[in-house]
Amino acid sequence: MQVSAKVVFVGLRLVAAATVANALAWRCAAYSAGNVNWAAGPALQEQLAEPVDIYWANNPLRQAIGNLSRTRRVAVLIDRRVDPGRELNVSLKGMPLETALRQIARPRGLDVSRLGDVLYLGPAAAADRLNAVSTEFKEEIRRLPSAARRKYFPRKKLAWEDFAEPRELLDRLGRWNGLAIDRLDRVPHDLWAAADLPPISLAGRLTLIAFQFDLTFKIAADGKRLELVPLPENVPETPDAEHRAATPRKKPASKPPANLERLRIDRLVVQGKPLGAVLGQLADRLDLELRIDRQAIAAAGISLDQRVSVKVENATVDELLRGLLRDTRLTFRRRQRVVEIVPAADKRVRH
């Protein structure tokens, strides 16, 4: 079986006189996605694990990310604080889509987080807080009487037209769901480009809009009235992996382990995940330079999409890699932080 990376080519930048409408939309937070059949659940995980080749030359950020998003059916919401016209020069080959998005984002002070089936691209500090803010809001909702909290969790699409006002979007969401939202004046006047996002809970829809203004919600005891309030200065991090992007993010204050030889992984469990995606996640977490010999792997009839499971405790990096590659017909060679993945029969490998 031949395995090859799917190539995503994003069009070259077009230079033209912009209309007022285009200029406004260019500065907005989201992009128009049209009627895309967005990947969701397990299908989204598979899309995020798919390898991509990306070649961008001076491509405006919103156009480039938007095209990539639509091509791969992975919904990405760009925070209003991100400059959508920022030019990107990117050359990535054979990298899982989610890892590629992080590689694009992080050198530019941005990062990727995930809320439901929506990927959020925003300032790194904001991306790091999104899931904690969302979790706190949902915890408040869960303390409501059962009849009151039910309305917050049904999943519906989130969409708006060009020149939408976020203040009006919040007000409309409230009215459509029988909620009164106080202090809408805390949302400054802004105009957003059209967006079409996959189904997400009402709590998630409200959060994705308010969070871009550093706002969240205080809920009345009966659950029928919300007040927009500033985000607290310190939001505790959440381990809720279901709502984080699949690739673990390092905390801003932490650094990659200086000496991999002395590093021990306390505990790691992987159950039935695509091998390529798991390798990409480990490389991201441990700051490894991953070199996958895709040509040799394909020639050997080995798939990086094969599902792997591993459980390690108090393991070294090499022990983790050996456990992960067991029964895959692959092996590795590591020199410091450089890890080569090749067919097990490759005579170059010694470890």
Draw up the topology in text.
Layout: E1 6-9, H1 20-26, H2 42-49, E2 51-60, H3 61-72, E3 76-78, E4 87-96, H4 97-105, E5 110-115, E6 118-123, H5 124-142, H6 146-149, E7 155-160, H7 166-176, E8 180-182, E9 195-201, H8 202-210, E10 215-219, E11 225-230, E12 265-274, H9 275-286, E13 289-292, H10 294-299, E14 307-315, H11 317-325, E15 330-335, E16 338-343
Helix pairs in contact: 7-8
- CATH hierarchy class name of the largest domain: Alpha Beta
Strand content: 25-35%
Order of strands in the sheet with most strands: 1-2-4
Number of helices: 11
Helix/strand-derived class? alpha/beta
CA-based gyration radius = 22 Å
Euclidean distance between termini CA atoms: 27 Å
Which of globular, elongated, flat, extended, rod-shaped describes the shape? Answer: globular
Provide the residue-averaged pLDDT. Answer: 81
Q: Using DSSP, what is the number of strands?
A: 16
Low-confidence stretches: 1-33, 237-258, 347-351
Order of helices and strands: EHHEHEEHEEHHEHEEHEEEHEHEHEE
Largest sheet: 3 strands, mixed
Helix share bin = 25-40%
Q: Any idea of the CATH topology of the largest domain? A: Phage tail protein beta-alpha-beta fold
Q: Architecture of the largest domain in CATH? A: 3-Layer(bab) Sandwich
Number of separate structural domains: 3
